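subagent[fold] <- orchestrator: predict structure for attached chain, return tokens only, no commentary.
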Amino acid sequence: MEEIDFFRALHRPGTILDIGAHDGLLTAPLAELPGAHVIAFEPLPSAMARLRERLGTHPRVTLRPEALGATHGEATLTLPVVAGEAAEQWASLAKTYAGHAGVTTERHPVTLLPLDALELTDVTAIKLDAEGYEEEVLQGGRETLRRCRPVLSIEIEERHRPGSTVAVPALLAGLGYSAWFWHAGRLHPFAAFDAATMQVASPDPSVFTASDPYIFTFFFLPEATAAAQLRQLAESGFGAGEQG
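subagent[fold] -> orchestrator:
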């Protein structure tokens, strides 16, 4: 869980967004950071029910059942089911899982909300895991990113949306962010990432094979503060040997 180390090293008091919170694996430790308040978004009803049971009364956590997107509206969240078991961490607004033998689906209507509609002014960090829907989430949060300049941790996978490892970093580069990834004990600039060798996996939730390494978590820093933040990461031990 290098993500929590990343957020701890660069923590500033304020609002942290956990987008795609699932069971709250990151929500809970993020809420314990000094001066933090976490808004956790989770549109899958079964996952939200567990979040409410676990964190519904936490004074530093706000739970939101909406899905973040580019605009206000409605959408369908597709949950694949493999051998009778719901593959919750594959639930997606970006794909239907059609054509995968042995995979059935549940379809859940969800409300879409653009992040900018919340008019937040103190967002310091964002964790985003949206199974291929990252572009839409970021498009709906452009003004928040420009205004608050949070640090970002985003899971981006070609198996969920082909071309996303190019499109998402390009979108954020246009907003003044530089991209990094963690591998072999250090940070590397995004230019060193090669999807053809570092991110090969089946888009079928019933197939569990992946390349070694399999890099899917990327870290984004505002260009204006990146040098100082890289020093903070190095001093914390997270970024030891960064920029390799």
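orchestrator: received. Logging for downstream: Residues 70 and 140 are 4 Å apart (CA to CA). The longest helix spans residues 45-55.
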